[in-house]
């Protein structure tokens, strides 16, 4: 499958510089180039991507304003289980331009800082390490079932356009044991590697990641076309090769792999639950106070709460992985 979009000369040059004479990259290498190239990458541009305004491509929980940060702070305080939040630094990994979720929020933590994409990650001491849709934006390896085995999918520059190609047979031990003909398995290995990297840093405290994902069993049997998608101006597309650097590329994380990474890093009893369940169980007192204060009016704050919690909005679309050590 190819893309009908015209490839920019700048990206073609960057593609060939990475690919060499063969003019081929694995899909994961292409996705990394399209999202994180220092000059051309989608996430390296200093531009608004999140929200409802002109030029944005998608919205997340953080689009709901300060109420999201307030709810996260309340839930994290509960999960610290008696420890003093003032003894912890709140570290947001992958924060968008303009500040993190605690910007403008009165919070109980001793300090709060953000780490932007491309900045070095150094975490020490007692921390709450938080992310919102960080892991789904990590490069995916894509595989397709062929004759009972798996072949990795790649991207080739052909003339002035990109097209999908099948690469060599794959034997990675973590691939599903069965490879139905034509089934696409999107493997978020980079997300698992990132979780392991964060867990390897010398810090203690609470890990909290908001994202959307599936179990390994679901990815292996219930997503025959894979989970990779593109987003441009709030429109979802399956044309993953179009306008690289200008559209977002994303895919479901594998919660089992992230849980394994945290467990191997010394975290105790990682839990995955829906966003709705997370806030109801861990920020219930905050929700009760806020809903009582907004009971007699349909305010923006009340609408934001409904969007974050309602199952038909973000409440069930997103999940939360949390663990302590």
Keywords:
single chain; 10 helices; alpha/beta; six-stranded mixed β-sheet; five-stranded antiparallel β-sheet; 16 strands; 325 residues
Describe the structure.
By secondary structure, this protein is of the alpha/beta class. The protein has helices spanning 9-19, 27-36, 66-79, 189-199, 216-221, 255-264, 275-282, 284-293, 300-309, 311-315; strands at residues 24-26, 89-93, 111-115, 125-132, 141-146, 149-158, 161-170, 184-187, 203-211, 213-214, 229-232, 235-237, 248-250, 253-254, 268-274, 319-324. β5 and β6 (149-158) form a beta hairpin. α3 (66-79) packs across α7 (275-282), α3 runs antiparallel to α8 (284-293) and α4 (189-199) packs parallel to α6 (255-264). The protein is globular and about 60 Å long. The model has no long low-confidence stretch (mean pLDDT 91).
């Amino acid at each position: 499958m190819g893309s009908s979009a015209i490839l920019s000369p700048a990206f073609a040059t960057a593609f060939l510089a990475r690919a060499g004479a063969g003019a081929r990259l694995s899909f994961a290498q292409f996705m990394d180039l399209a999202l994180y190239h220092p000059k051309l990458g989608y996430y390296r541009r200093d531009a608004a991507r999140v929200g409802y305004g002109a030029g944005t491509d998608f919205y997340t929980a953080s689009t709901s304003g300060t109420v999201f940060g307030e709810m996260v702070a309340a839930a994290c305080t509960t999960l610290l289980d008696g420890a003093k939040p003032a003894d912890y630094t709140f570290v947001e990994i992958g924060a968008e331009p303009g500040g993190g979720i605690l910007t403008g929020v009165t919070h109980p933590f001793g300090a709060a800082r953000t780490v932007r994409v491309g900045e070095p990650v150094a975490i020490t001491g007692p921390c709450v390490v938080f992310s919102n849709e960080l892991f789904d934006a990590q490069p995916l390896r894509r595989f397709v079932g062929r004759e009972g085995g798996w072949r990795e999918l790649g991207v080739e520059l052909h003339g002035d356009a990109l097209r999908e190609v099948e690469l060599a047979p794959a034997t990675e031990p973590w691939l599903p044991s069965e490879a139905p003909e034509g089934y696409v398995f999107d493997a978020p290995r980079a997300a698992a590697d990132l979780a392991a990297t964060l867990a390897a840093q010398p810090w203690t405290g609470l890990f909290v990641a908001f994202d959307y994902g599936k179990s390994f069993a679901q990815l292996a049997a219930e997503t025959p076309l894979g989970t990779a998608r593109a987003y441009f101006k709030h429109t979802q597309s399956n044309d993953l090769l179009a306008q690289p650097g200008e559209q977002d590329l994303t895919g479901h994380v594998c919660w089992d792999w992230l849980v394994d990474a945290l467990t191997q890093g010394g975290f105790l009893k990682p839990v995955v639950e829906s966003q709705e369940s997370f806030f109801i169980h861990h920020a219930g007192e905050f929700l009760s106070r806020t809903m009582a204060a907004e009971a007699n009016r349909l305010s923006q704050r009340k609408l934001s709460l409904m969007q974050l919690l309602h199952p038909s909005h973000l409440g069930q679309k997103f999940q939360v992985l949390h663990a302590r050590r």
